[in-house]
């Protein structure tokens, strides 16, 4: 506040900005200005109204409006009640795994990486499953790719 007063005393004429900054501070400042002898500036500044233009604050855009592609499709599916559109939350259980009845693995693509938890093993055995005839794991189970529509 003292910097405002120092600038005001040094200036020959007070700028609108400087006076408006001083007038906005009420109470002790007005009494201080009267003691210093600058009452005429506070009166003229108080009489002059500071006008402001009302600004309409724009809202932030909704996420759905900004999203595109797969992200937008995921949001639409979540709104419709599908909490897991990619099916990542469920573990596929092996079926009988025979050649005439292989375990079906859903995929929207031509291939998918599959991990088989074979008996008496601590780690999964990974294999790349592609479209075509069933593929056999080391443990003897058969897997086949089942086409599903993309998300």
From TrEMBL:
It comes from the Eukaryota. The keyword Metal-binding applies. CDD domains: Cyt_c_Oxidase_Vb. GO terms for biological process: mitochondrial electron transport, cytochrome c to oxygen. Keywords: Metal-binding, Zinc. GO terms for cellular component: mitochondrial envelope; respiratory chain complex IV. This is GL25677. It comes from Drosophila persimilis. The gene is Dper\GL25677.
């Amino acid at each position: 506040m003292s910097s405002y007063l120092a600038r005001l005393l040094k200036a020959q004429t007070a700028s609108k900005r400087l006076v408006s900054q001083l007038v906005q501070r009420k109470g002790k400042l007005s009494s201080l200005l009267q003691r210093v002898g600058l009452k005429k500036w506070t009166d003229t500044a108080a009489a002059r109204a500071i006008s402001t233009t009302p600004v309409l604050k724009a809202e932030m855009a909704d996420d759905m409006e900004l999203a595109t592609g797969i992200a937008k499709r995921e949001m639409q599916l979540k709104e419709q009640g599908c909490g897991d559109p990619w099916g990542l939350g469920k573990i596929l259980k092996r079926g009988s795994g025979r050649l005439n009845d292989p375990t079906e693995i859903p995929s929207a693509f031509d291939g998918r990486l599959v991990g088989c938890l074979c008996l008496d093993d601590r780690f999964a055995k990974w294999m790349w499953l592609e479209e075509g005839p069933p593929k056999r794991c080391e443990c003897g189970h058969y897997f086949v790719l089942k086409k599903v529509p993309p998300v």
